[in-house]
Amino acid sequence: MANNEESRGLKSLFDWFANRRKSGSTSLERQEREIADGLWHKCSKCGVLSYTKDLKANQMVCVECNHHNRVDSDERIRQLIDHNTWKPMDEHLRPTDPLEFRDRKLYSDRLRETQEKIGLIDAVNTGLGQINGLPIALGVMDFRFMGGSMGSVVGEKLTRMIEQATQRRYPVVIVCTSGGARMQEGMLSLMQMAKISAALQRHRDARLLYIPVLTNPTTGGVTASFAMLGDIILAEPKATIGFAGRRVIEQTLREKLPENFQTAEDLLQHGFVDDIVPRTQLKNTLTQLIALHQPVLTTPHLVLWETMSLTSTAAE
Asked: Residue 53: left if φ>0, alpha if ψ -120 to 50, beta else—which one?
């Protein structure tokens, strides 16, 4: 009789532990669902859970460790451009597959799948708008589209935007994030480096301002061209910026590189970057720089007054 009671007790104890495990797994699944649904965000740097709404209010910068989470091009435009002033450009331009390139899948299939997944035609958004009331031409690269790689459409859209800015005498800001030139387009992608650089030179010849903002990561052919051609080069904290990858350089040099190699802080120390600006301060910083470099317009009555003053002085 006692043995039966003990067995029933053990059985009920096992059931209790089983139920605890089941409820624990259920709560874990529920927590994972909530995180997946976008209610919470776990910082990849410090591991702190933040309410997504609060994180977005802080421009996707972790309030605990100041880690700058990657943001898409649409969110970046909302952060920088004044409400209802954004006018996108060249949205009709679409990439093609002139080389009929194939790796694990056809390049044309990869393009179509990426476009359907993230809702972008290619890896950059360009347009005209205002930043705290000042006119600006803005290009924003998007790392979600094949690693922000620079193909023919990226080069064409940026070139047209720069030419439009030169014609209108607007300053140009390009937010860079890229893995480099798009290998699926071969030499055609490399040609974009020269094309964008030539447009920027004409912009500079017109004595107009160009500011690139280097975000994480900015590498390859983008770094080797328009990302480093700015009059003032800004970067986000801890952004990875370089040309070749760290492992490739270590294998070539056969020596260990410093831990902070190819970071924004390292480039600032060596003079490749002019300033590191936290994302929460970027809009105001750009506004100040653009305002300082606006051409001074002399009104006709001031010109007349200066002429009269010079004439009277000469007569004396």
From this structure: alpha
Determine, yes or no, domain membership for 51.
Answer: no
> What is the dihedral angle through the alpha carbons of 150, 155, 158, 160, rounded to the nearest 10 degrees?
-160
CATH number of residue 268's parent domain = 3.90.226.10
Give yes or no: residues 159 and 256 share one domain: yes
Tens-place pLDDT, residues 187-228 = 999 999 999 999 999 999 999 999 999 999 999 999 999 999
The tokens describing 276, both together, are 């590191």
Global confidence as pTM: 0.82
Among 57-66, 129-138, 203-212, 226-235, which stretch is predicted with the lowest mean pLDDT? 57-66
Contact 122, 141 (CB under 8 A): no
Residue 87 structure tokens: 């006018």
Asked if residue 13 and residue 136 are part of one domain, the reply reads: no
Does one domain contain both 19 and 95?
no
* Segments in the chain forming alpha helices (H): 2-36, 52-57, 73-80, 107-118, 152-168, 187-205, 220-223, 246-253, 264-269, 279-292, 300-315
- Residue 130, pLDDT above cutoff 90: yes
Local structure of 191: helix, strand or coil: helix
Return the closest-CA partner of residue 132 out of 285, 263, 241, 274: 285
Number of domains in the chain: 2
In a domain, 304, yes or no: no
Residue 28: which domain range? 2-37
- How is residue 186 annotated by DSSP? T
